[in-house]
Recover the amino acids of this structure.
């Protein structure tokens, strides 16, 4: 990646250019995006899991052009050295900047992990991502749902699947 003053990431600034602009996209990936009822980003690390997939030009173009709702499964916590001091709004803005499309829905956990878990993460520099300070636009895109595994600060795969099936928007493909 090229270094620039436009993005803070782990104490450094990066633009997010992956290198050659002609990275190939598998036809099967494009077909899956084209026929999707939902396009789901996450859960995962913002700058090391989610955004790298969006840096492939064919994938980004297909997602931008898709009629399927774009759902971002928001991270539960900030990640030390990666998203320090980045708010939920900052996560969504980073996706929008790299993709050229804003998520239609942001699926946000509204369950609190146990105090000892949040204290342990805080000691490592990680903090819960919440809607505190979020814009009206972002609040309008958010769907709040309990997504935690019991006693942990991790997404519960069953709760996440249920939320994606029941409360997140879907395109009718027929």
């Amino acid at each position: 990646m090229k270094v620039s003053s436009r993005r803070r990431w782990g104490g450094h600034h990066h633009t997010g250019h992956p290198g050659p602009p002609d990275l190939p996209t598998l036809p099967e990936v494009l077909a899956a995006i084209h026929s999707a009822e939902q396009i789901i980003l996450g859960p995962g690390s913002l700058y090391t899991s989610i955004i790298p997939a969006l840096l492939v030009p064919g994938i980004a173009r297909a997602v931008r052009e898709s009629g399927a709702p774009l759902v971002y499964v928001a991270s539960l916590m900030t990640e030390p050295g990666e998203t320090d001091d980045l708010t939920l709004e900052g996560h969504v803005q980073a996706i929008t900047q790299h993709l050229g499309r804003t998520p239609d829905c942001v699926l946000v956990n509204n369950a609190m992990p146990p105090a000892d878990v949040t204290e342990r993460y805080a000691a490592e520099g990680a903090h819960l991502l919440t809607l505190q300070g979020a814009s009206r636009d972002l609040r309008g895109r958010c769907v709040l749902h309990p997504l935690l595994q019991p006693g942990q600060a991790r997404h519960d795969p069953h709760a996440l699947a249920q939320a994606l099936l029941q409360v997140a928007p879907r395109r009718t493909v027929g």
